[in-house]
């Protein structure tokens, strides 16, 4: 443990085994416990601690509260051509998300494109997980989820919008290009992590209770006034993602989810495209490589700044944490062990 930042270093295997043991204790059968434990571990290994190790205690509390049903399975509601609607039946969000991504890929393999709307599900944790899942299997992926209201409409002071994360991914070399972004400048997980570390945000992230712009995560978490990316554009995109998630899944919208005591019964959309069905398939790999090569030739603002494509830093963090262990805040790990 470092006395300076109060951090432990946990190996990948120790984290996985700890998560699995706790999940089994709280009602997940063996295979489900292993899959969920693997997702939380890989998210942490990749440096997405906010939706990995730091989020794990909340997931357990939702299991304890009955908001996540450990033995629930998704069920097909309707199907037409390349479109399916499923009910998540309040099962574990990551397991429902893996199933929906697999169904979208199966539909895409058959039809060229597949779209799955998933209603009545739970937090999918790191949305990029499913972008990686599809892209590594050779598919283009577009997916999003709505959330509880946690962001104001542009020009408003009260939260009516969710920060509704959006994921876009495609295969690249032996890995993938994966964009995973919330509609707020910072996800609430990122702000919670900064607050736990006593750090400021690197740029303005929202407003305090007096309406002043601030980089203080505690002030934003208190005011519930996060800043939408692109100002009014991000707010508008958030609204449309919420509408489409509710329409395409047949599930609840943000304003309906926000009537609940916690964030659950979410609506999500998963779209996969089989690029092998495209007429220009043989030229796609070279075209993407040329785009990234040109992108990497950007002139950085400083010698220390490296220009990376979405998902590239994840690969670097994964390599580092695999070799050196996963950094975990001591109080977070102690809370996990108490579960």
From TrEMBL:
For this UniProt record, give its keywords in alphabetical order, as a comma-separated list: Oxidoreductase
Which SUPFAM superfamilies has this protein been placed in? L-sulfolactate dehydrogenase-like
- Record-linked InterPro entries: Mal/L-sulf/L-lact_DH-like_ah (IPR043144), Mal/L-sulf/L-lact_DH-like_NADP (IPR043143), Mal/L-sulfo/L-lacto_DH-like_sf (IPR036111), Malate/L-lactate_DH-like (IPR003767)
* Keyword RNA-binding (UniProt): no
* Superkingdom of origin: Bacteria
A family per Pfam = Ldh_2
Look up keyword Isomerase and say if it applies: no
| NCBIfam families hit by this protein | PRK13260.1 (NF009750)
The protein depicted here goes by the name: Malate/L-lactate dehydrogenase
Question: Which organism was this protein described from?
Answer: Emticicia oligotrophica (strain DSM 17448 / CIP 109782 / MTCC 6937 / GPTSA100-15)
Q: What is the lineage of its organism?
A: Bacteria, Pseudomonadati, Bacteroidota, Cytophagia, Cytophagales
């Amino acid at each position: 443990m470092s006395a300076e930042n109060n951090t432990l270093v946990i190996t990948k295997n120790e984290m996985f085994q700890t998560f699995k043991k706790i999940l089994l204790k709280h009602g997940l059968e063996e295979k489900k416990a292993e899959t969920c434990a693997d997702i939380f571990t890989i998210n942490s290994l990749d440096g997405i601690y906010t939706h990995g190790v730091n989020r794990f205690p909340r997931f357990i509390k939702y299991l304890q509260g009955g908001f996540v049903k450990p033995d629930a399975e998704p069920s097909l509601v309707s199907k037409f051509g390349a479109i399916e609607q499923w009910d998540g039946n309040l099962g574990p969000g990551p397991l429902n998300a893996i199933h929906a991504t697999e169904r979208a890929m199966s539909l895409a393999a058959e039809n060229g494109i597949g779209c799955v709307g998933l209603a009545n599900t739970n937090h999918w944790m790191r949305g990029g997980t499913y972008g990686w899942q599809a892209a590594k299997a050779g598919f283009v992926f577009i997916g999003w989820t709505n959330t509880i209201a946690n962001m104001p409409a542009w020009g408003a002071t009260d939260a009516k919008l969710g920060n509704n994360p959006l994921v876009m991914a495609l295969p690249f070399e032996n890995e993938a290009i994966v964009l995973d972004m919330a509609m707020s400048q910072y996800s609430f997980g990122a702000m919670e992590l900064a607050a736990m570390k006593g750090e400021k945000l690197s740029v303005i992230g929202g407003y305090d209770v007096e309406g002043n712009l601030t980089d203080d995560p505690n002030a934003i978490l208190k005011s519930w006034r996060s800043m939408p990316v692109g100002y009014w554009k991000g707010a508008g995109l958030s609204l449309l993602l919420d509408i489409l998630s509710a329409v395409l899944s047949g599930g609840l919208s943000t304003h309906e989810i926000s009537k609940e005591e916690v964030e659950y019964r979410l609506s999500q959309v998963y779209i996969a495209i089989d690029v092998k069905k495209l007429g220009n398939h043989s030229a796609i790999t070279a075209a993407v490589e040329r785009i990234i090569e040109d992108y990497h030739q950007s002139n950085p603002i400083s010698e220390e700044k490296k220009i990376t494509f979405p998902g590239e830093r994840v690969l670097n963090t994964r390599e580092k944490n695999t070799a050196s262990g996963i950094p975990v805040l001591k109080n977070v790990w102690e809370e996990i062990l108490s579960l």
